[in-house]
Amino acid sequence: MDAILDSFLSLGLIESIDGNDERYAKIEQAAQKLAEYYREERDQLIPAILCGLNPNVSLDELPINKAKELLQNEWKAFLTAYTDEPVNLYRSIILEACSQVSEEDNNAAIMWLTACDVFPLLRCGKEEKVLRSFLQSLGRTAEQNAIVGVPDLSFRKEETIKLDELPTPVFTKKGVDKDDLRERIGGAAGSQYINQDGQQVAGTNPNRYYPNQNPVPWAGDFAERMSEIIASEIEFIEDKSINKQMKSLGSLKKSVEKALNEQRLALQRQQNAFLDYQRQEQTRLNVLWWAEALYSTSQKESYRSHFPEIAAVLMPYDLLEEIQLPSPASVVFTLAEAVGKLPECSHDRNYSFYEILTEIRNKRSQLDPCWLETLTSRLDEKNSNIGGMVVRALVDENCDFNSLIEASFIPQDWRCSLPELSRAIFRQEQAYRLVAEV
Q1: Do residues 146 and 326 touch, judged by C-beta distance below 8 A?
Q2: pTM of the full structure
Q3: What is the distance between the alpha carbons of residues 148 and 260, in angstroms, rounded to a whole number?
């Protein structure tokens, strides 16, 4: 799809650009810097996508202030070009940054799960088509990442692994220093000897005796000197041979390591593919079993024993414990159908959101206190999403629902069925868990 910035610009939602490429480049740069920020702070994707989609977003929201700050870093005097705060400009920067990181990790799933149930409640103007298309692209990416294809069971014939050829030994014939040997051996035989030129010269480290005068001492000196000469030559040849062998072994080691690592990586890829597929199949089995049993593992009793509003809130949390994240879209619809099986939970029966929150607070004593305690960590007074308000109803007995709804983007008169509510809780809670995985 087209860049969000281009789409907002073509719709006339970004003013004071007037074809100025330099200004537009600064806005693009701010969006890129904001995308870098979201890569470092993935938990900010949740409030960011909500603020970016909301045409009535407050200027006090953190994502708006962050976008403004980064734009001001690139375009110092941008506010002089506007008579009012350019909210749509901030929104476009936020959404453009969200778009730039949407292909990474599970970011698309986080944003899609956060916003898909909220978007119909927002009163968008002429940008609605663009935003809907953007959300749908997030949903497609999230679904593609959540579904694991069936592993290919027809293994292709791999080439035979062959080690690299060992280098052909190159023997460099080292010329023996015959003069040196002659001098040393001559010295071992006597104090003087005749060299190759027929001259009588003194030997190196000469023998102190002559064989005709002192044969036994001469033999001792000769043996001592000759053993040193022979030993030094043998050691030289041995060192040279060992060095050649070590080079050959080093080459062989690299070849074996390369072959073994290729085999290891191939096996790991196959194992990971099968494990991912097995987990997905286990998720499907768990979901089907859960939907048929209608049994709450957290409360140790049937959902039918709970009030409808309580069951509709409890079920998405229980189901999230049965699956791997992110889940395919079919899971949340299975949840909605399971909720619809319960008394007074029909898809056709709508309730006031205010009344649902009130009933949840009044009847929460039916729930296990230890389970309610686990929700305390999810309590966030700044979270005005549907799931966040439900958590407030469960753990905060003093909250004012009228003020809470009025301060949010949820219409005061909003009505929904319990399956719809359960579906929204499931998606939004899943988004928070995906963020927490990092």
Answers
A1: yes
A2: 0.73
A3: 28
CB-CB neighbours of 311 under 10 Å: 26
Q: Which of 290, 390, 299, 415 is CA-nearest to residue 341?
A: 290
Residue 155: exposed, middle, or buried by beta-carbon count in 10 A (0-12, 13-18, 19+)?
Answer: exposed
Chain-centroid distance of CA 249 in Å reads 39
Q: CA neighbours within 13 Å on the CB side: how many for 237?
A: 10
Note the pLDDT tens digit of each residue in 127-171.
999 999 999 999 999 999 888 766 665 555 555 656 556 555 555
| Backbone Cα Rg of the chain | 40
Which pair of structure tokens corresponds to residue 344?
């007074």
Tell me how far apart the alpha carbons of residues 410 and 383 are, in angstroms, rounded to a whole number: 12
Beta bridge partners of 193: 201
Structure tokens at 420: 């719809």
Write the secondary structure of the chain as one string of H (helix), E (strand) and C (coil).
Answer: CCCHHHHHHHCCCCCCCCCCHHHHHHHHHHHHHHHHHHHHCHHHHHHHHHHHHCCCCCCCCHHHHHHHHHHHHHCCCHHHHCCCCCHHHHHHHHHHHHHHCCCCCCHHHHHHHHHCCCHHHCCCCCCHHHHHHHHHHHHHHHHHHHCCCCCCCCCCCCCCCCCCCCCCCCCCCCCCCHHHHHHHHHHHHCCEEECCCCCEEECCCCCCCCCCCCHHHHHHHHHHHHHHHHHHHHHHHHHHHHHHHHHHHHHHHHHHHHHHHHHHHHHHHHHHHHHHHHHHHHHHHHHHHHHHHCEECCCCEEHHHCCHHHHHHHHHHHHHCCCCCCCCHHHHHHHHHHHHCCCCCCCCCEEEHHHHHHHHHHHHHHCCHHHHHHHHHHCCCCCCCHHHHHHHHHHCCCCCHHHHHHCCCCCCCCEEEHHHHHHHHHHHHHHHHHHHCC
Q: What Å distances lie between residue 213 and 184, 201, 205, CA to CA?
A: 21, 20, 19
Q: Contact 109/142 with Cβ under 8 angstroms? A: yes
Rounded Cα–Cα distance for residues 40 and 25 (Å): 23
Per-residue pLDDT tens over the stretch 232-268: 877 777 777 787 778 777 778 888 888 888 888 888 8
Structure tokens at 127: 């940008």
Token look-up 């074809």 returns 19
